Amino acid sequence: MKSSTIFYSLLFTLLTTASALSYSMASQSNTQLTIEELRVEKAQQVMPILTTYFDWSDFNGQWSNITDYAVAKRAMRQLGDELWQYSKQQAQSGKVVDDRPLYWTRLSIHSFVKSTKHNFTQSELESLLEVFEKSSRGYSDLAYKKRTNKRILLTGFDPFLLDRNIEQSNPSGLAALLFDGLVIEYQLGNKIFTAEINTAMVPVRYEDFDQGEIERLLAPFYALNSVDMIATISMGRSDFDLEHFPGLRRSATAPDNVNVYTGANKTNPLVPNLLSSPLNGDEFVLFSLPFKSMMQAKGAYKINDNRGVTILTDGKAKDITVNSLTELTDKVSVQGGGGGYLSNEISYRSIVLRNKLGSIIPTGHIHTPRINGFDEKTNQAIIAQIEAMLVQALKEI
Predict the structure, then answer these.
(1) Which CATH number fits domain 150-394: 3.30.2110.10, 3.40.630.20, 3.50.30.10, 3.40.640.10?
(2) pTM score
(3) pLDDT interval class at 17 (50, 70, 90)
């Protein structure tokens, strides 16, 4: 048996076990709403569309009467899938071109399920919510259904830093909604080829990452080399940045969406976990998307090949720019190109997993320009340029 197959098998077993353990642990304490869920009421006050966006009244009326766990599991999976499909359709049809209603409706359903009388143990309830969570993020909808020449997998993120601005959106989340199931064309010589895109929406929560969220999501694709390109996307700085050297450690002082602080900073960068152990990997890894071609994509924004990182030297953070991974040998990471937050971390974890499984899939991270709150015109420009980058990349992979 190949070492990559053994690794994948062990990883799957560990992650499955960890999920069961996390449900059990949650059962001891989690009848209360999370900070993330407690923001829903304020969000509904400032964004009235949230109260009428998605009709889940049938589930609302039936939930307290469901007594069989298997029936409840099917209902939760169906509701999550309906929310995901509806949000995609609304965005792709141009009716509600916005990532925020999906995010807040998911949390509203979470709050209702946790707060309303039900017939399940706390452990069962947490498991049911996990089923809903995954299906409403597109995790259950990652099958390639069309006959195309290439396949692309993209991930986006939820909105974040919501205590600063409750109306904040995330262009990467909107990209996930707009691109899921899309077939795009690219030209080689005189011939036109096609590629199907699948997407998923990732939470902005440290604990989910520590419990193997990214590894669980991406391992099947890397193990089977079943797609031709994997790009993780998040909101970043003023331009597009292709993050050349993701780093191992967390150093951001910002909280996640449940207001968890890691205690890390630029002079105390911390290694995240994979399950109960520190994440194992080199301090820096290498982006493998065809960046030179992607930088040729036309659009409103500059596209940077970002080779800047931050290292720890004599207890101090030092910003450097490098041209090769060998220049980072024996250096301690403070920030990768994508920073010290979860944008950098999803890129790092995906590339480490790719390398450990011996995959050949080109992988890398795209940071989009930053927006304040919600800006439809800016979002449209960002999405159009992401598509142009994907078309350019397809010509090289």
Answers:
(1) 3.40.630.20
(2) 0.92
(3) very low
